[in-house]
Amino acid sequence: MNLPKIHQFEGVPLGDDQQGRANWVVLEGYFKPQCGGTVCVNLIRQPVSHDFGQDCGFVEAVPSRTPYYRGDPIYIHVKAPCPPTSSPDDSAGTTSQGGDNAGQDNGGQDAGQDNGGQDAGTDAGTGTDQGASSSATTPS
Asked: Does the first or last residue of the chain, that is N or C, have fewer Cβ atoms within 10 Å of its Cβ?
């Protein structure tokens, strides 16, 4: 999926007040068509320093990768300072932030194992650990 055209949001308040929450719902609506009518990405409000607009006004949307996929975080940059939300916005997805490769494990290798674990983690922090370990054998 690719970012919807949302340039008209520049400077629009997206804070935790009534107007900001209403604008957030409108912003979410631009992501729904690509997701089949729901918000299938994690929209995360992220305050950044910026020279124009009002506090907590929309600056830009930044996907974690392009194209982005279901479940990926989309960072909604707003002009700092922007007070944190007082309660989680259920429609905004999770607000936890992981860096690149969040959710990937290192392969586990104990002394004497021939096979290490392998993680098929995604940038969004999900994954399925794979890999079997075998017991150590002693040379005969």
From this structure: C
Place of tokens 């909604």: 76
pLDDT in tens, 67-118: 999 999 999 999 998 876 544 444 444 333 333 333 333 333 333 434 444 4
Sorted by sequence, the CB contacts under 8 Å of residue 82 that are 6+ apart come out as 14, 15, 45, 47, 55, 56
Cis bond upstream, residue 67 (ω within 30): yes
Note the pTM of the prediction, 2 decimals: 0.59
Please write the tens of the pLDDT for every residue from 58-69.
Answer: 999 999 999 999
| Nearest to 97, CA basis, from 43, 25, 50 | 43
Cα(82)–Cα(84) distance, integer angstroms: 6
Q: Hey, what amino acid is at 37?
A: G
Residues with Cβ within 8 Å of residue 40, at least 6 apart in sequence: 31, 34, 70, 71
Distances in Å between the Cα of 23 and the Cα atoms of 57, 61, 138 are 10, 14, 66
First to last CA, the chain: 57
